Amino acid sequence: MQSRDKDDVVAWLAEFPNLKYVSRDGFHTYASAIRESHPKAQHISDRFHLVKNLTDAITQCIYKFLSARIAIPLTKEKKVMNELLSSKPSQRDKILLVKSLASQGRTAQEIRFLTKYNLQTIRKYIRMTEEEIPQNSDDRRDRNHKEAIQKIMGRVEEVRALQKKGYSIRKIVDKTGHTKKTIKNYLSPDFNPIHGQYGVRRPGKLSPFRNEVISLRSKGTPYKDIYTTLCKKGYTGSIAAIRQFIAKEKRLQRDLKDYDAISSTEIIERKWLLKLLYRPLEKVKALTHEQVKNVVQKYPLLGKLHHLVWYFKEILLSRKEDSLQAWITEAESLELSELTSFLNGIKRI
Q1: Cα–Cα–Cα angle for 216, 220, 222, nearest 5°?
Q2: Is the pTM here over 0.70, yes or no?
Q3: What integer pLDDT is reported at residue 197 of this predicted model?
Q4: How far is CA 295 from CA 44, 71, 120, 132, 321, in A?
Q5: What residue ranges do the domains of the chain occupy?
Q6: SS3 call for 261
Q7: What is the DSSP string of 64-129?
């Protein structure tokens, strides 16, 4: 039965006079048709649609209070990475970065947002073969970029110093010549002059162990010991690949050492946090436990909503009927309008 017209559904169901149970999704026409044709039949909502309707409702909740990009305190892993990855990228490294981001499923527009490279250059880099990638060389534009960052931060420090002296935004505009919008950006605690790579990931055999390699190496662990540790966990690559990984990562980050002295934040994208509604954290490679912890500390409601989804899935899988009412009570206590319709439907089941 493919029609969603009530009369068609009623007529079709009438062909089965002995129905006692009917499994359906949340479409109200189906519910009405079943009540009309088989008033004594018990309605059953299938697991897939229950979870989908819940995650859709919670996604709407998250969109209301969480922006697309969230600034959080710099995590321990990122600080360690900043210490290791302080060199500037060459053209080769930029190409490898773009290809790496593309291999993660990033669109050209997303790569442009992360790297600030133009779309034509990004598409060119993505098409390049290994043989066409140039060897490392000095990059004048990268040096210019670093100088530009330093100039920006000089202006930021000037504006913030004026504010500390009691200057109003209007007076700062008159004194510096910057626009009101620019001054507000400079005064924002989330201001970041660098729109570079956040949490770059490399495809290949070493990808699942990336964070662990950085952590072990930052503690001074010899490459041989790192290799042995990873092999026990399923790594099938070579020790040389681990050495190359650290060397390349150092070159791929720009200005991190200088920027770390003036900034203690990093950016997390909302889309990765939404994936946690569908996948466990271990399956979302763009996030770490510490990053999620920092986001939840800033937005406690996010943690509660993630808990609701996974607790609900657990109830369905384990068939713990006694836990359902407690779950409903917990969900109602959040007083979120986006959840009201779903909760009312659950109560009617």
Answers
A1: 80
A2: no
A3: 39
A4: 37, 8, 34, 41, 32
A5: 1-45, 81-264, 299-348
A6: coil
A7: HH--SEEEEEPPHHHHHHHHH--SPP-HHHHHHHHHHHHHTT--HHHHHHHH---HHHHHHHHH--
- In single-letter form, the type of residue at position 99 comes to K
Structural contact between residues 193 and 152, judged by C-beta atoms closer than 8 angstroms? yes
Q: What pLDDT, on the 0 to 100 scale, is given for residue 199?
A: 38
Average pLDDT over all residues of the chain: 78
Q: Quickly list DSSP for 145-172.
A: HHHHHHHHHHHHHHHHHHHHTT--HHHH
**Are the CB atoms for 219 and 205 separated by under 8 Å?**
no
Give CA–CA dist 147/143, Å, rounded.
6
Q: Which helix (H) or strand (E) holds 267?
A: strand 265-269
Encode pLDDT of 140-199 as tens digits: 555 666 677 778 888 888 999 999 999 999 999 998 999 998 998 889 877 766 544 333
d(CA 53, CA 48): 9
Instruction: Please state, as a whole number, how many other Cβ atoms lie within 10 Å of the Cβ of residue 126.
Output: 15
Report, as an integer, the average pLDDT of 57-78. 82
pLDDT value at 106 more than 80: no
Predicted pLDDT of residue 78: 55
CA distance 68 to 273: 10
- Reading the block at residue 282, the tokens are 């271990």
Which residue, among 285, 270, 338, has the nearest Cα to 105 in the 3D structure?
A: 285
Most confident of 86-95, 236-245, 298-307: 298-307
Predicted local confidence at residue 28, as pLDDT = 67
Tell me the C-alpha distance between 266 and 74, whole Å.
Answer: 5
Q: Using the CB atoms, write b or e for 286-322: b if 16+ within 10 Å.
A: ebbebbbebbbeebeebebbbebbeebbebeeeeeee
Torsion of CA 74, 76, 80, 83, to 10 degrees: 40
Query: How many angstroms separate the CA atoms of 296 and 289, rounded?
Result: 11
